[in-house]
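Lay summary. Proteins are chains of building blocks that fold into shapes, and those shapes determine what they do. In this project we predict the shape from the chain. Here is one chain we studied, written as its sequence of building blocks.
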Amino acid sequence: MFDLSDLSVADITSNLLKLNSEYKSWIDRHEEIANNELQGELFETALRHVESCHSCLARMKECLELLKSNKKVNRAFKLMNRAMLLQQLHYSIETRN
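And here is the predicted shape, written in a compact code that computers can read:
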């Protein structure tokens, strides 16, 4: 949360591009598992979930472009991450690096 609240636009973009890439790899792995190991109703359910993940990834990519191009959106994103960090610290919730 600290990184996403205080880094430059370029650094935030870099971090979020990495997140998107890793999420896409995760989706692809699970899609492959579904295609190779599931059948019938389980296969259909898995594909629905994979499609939902692809939709989420598309929204994440769109929002990343918005973060890069709109200063107000970028500022709101940073403030949101700072607020979440402060809540974690206040309630002694373990933070991630």
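What the prediction tells us: The radius of gyration is 17 Å.
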